[in-house]
């Protein structure tokens, strides 16, 4: 079971602080969890390229597909890799730069009130049992700290940026994940 300290950091996971974050506006309540996927290069798993991207030290000459990432400043609160290993980049109390132009239930700027969790993966490659297990445990810890994040307020990036984003994609088993949360 994971716990979150009073500064918004998961205990028992790797911490790799990203410079790509800001304070949440005013008294904004955290009430949305957004599930993403990422792999760098696309479809390749393992390595530290995702960490490097979120910490602004990605060598954009290391792979031709990285050229579009030059000078990009993005982050997520946490990443769960294929083995279930979790790295946290931004305190859950802060605003990670994960959602971009987004809207949920008519409310824009999802970064302001959401938490973004990246799963190492693609839209079309199934996620691992270890990832689901870790995601469930992290989500339960988040729900204890931020009780407004109910099952109906756990969505994919595709749900808050339709037409622009497709992740976590059809490979993500929403029914299984939400059943495991119970």
Description:
The chain has 182 residues and is an alpha/beta fold. It has four helices and ten strands, in the order E-E-E-H-E-E-E-E-E-E-H-E-H-H. Helix content is 19%, strand content 18%. A six-stranded mixed beta sheet has the order 1-5-4-9-3-10. Strand 4 (78-80) and strand 5 form a beta hairpin. The chain is globular.
Topology:
Layout: E1 14-15, E2 21-22, E3 32-38, H1 49-54, E4 78-80, E5 86-88, E6 95-96, E7 103-104, E8 107-108, E9 114-120, H2 129-145, E10 154-156, H3 157-160, H4 174-181
Parallel strand pairs: 1-5, 3-9, 3-10, 4-9
Antiparallel strand pairs: 2-6, 4-5, 7-8
The SS-based structural class is alpha/beta
Q: What is the C-alpha radius of gyration, as a whole number of Å?
A: 15 Å
Quaternary state reads single chain
Intertermini distance: 15 Å
Major sheet? 6 strands, mixed
Number of helices: 4
Q: Level of helix content?
A: 10-25%
Provide mean pLDDT, rounded.
97
Q: In percent terms, what proportion of residues is strand?
A: 15-25%
Choose one word for the global shape. Answer: globular
Order of the strands making up the biggest sheet:
1-5-4-9-3-10
Report the uncertain regions: none
Q: SSE string, helix = H, strand = E?
A: EEEHEEEEEEHEHH
- Total number of strands: 10
Task: Give keywords.
182 residues; alpha/beta; six-stranded mixed sheet; two-stranded antiparallel sheet; 4 helices; 10 strands
Summarize this entry quickly.
19% of the residues lie in helices and 18% in strands. The protein has 182 residues and is of the alpha/beta class.
């Amino acid at each position: 079971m994971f716990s979150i300290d009073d500064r918004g950091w998961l205990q028992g996971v790797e911490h790799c602080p990203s410079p790509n974050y800001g304070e949440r506006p005013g008294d904004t309540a955290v009430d949305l969890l957004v599930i993403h996927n990422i792999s760098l290069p696309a479809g390749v798993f393992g390595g530290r390229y995702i960490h490097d991207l979120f910490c602004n030290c990605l060598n954009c000459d290391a792979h031709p597909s990285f050229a579009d990432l030059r000078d990009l400043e993005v982050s997520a609160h946490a990443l769960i890799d294929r083995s279930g290993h979790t790295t946290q980049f931004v305190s859950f109390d802060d605003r990670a730069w994960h959602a971009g132009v987004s809207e949920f239930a008519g409310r824009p700027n999802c970064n302001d009130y959401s938490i973004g969790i990246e799963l190492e993966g693609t839209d079309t490659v199934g996620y691992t049992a270890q990832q689901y297990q870790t995601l469930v445990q992290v989500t339960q810890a988040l729900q204890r700290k931020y009780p407004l994040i109910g099952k109906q307020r756990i969505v994919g990036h595709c749900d808050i940026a339709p037409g622009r984003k497709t992740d976590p994609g059809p490979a993500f088993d929403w029914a299984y994940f939400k059943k495991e949360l119970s």
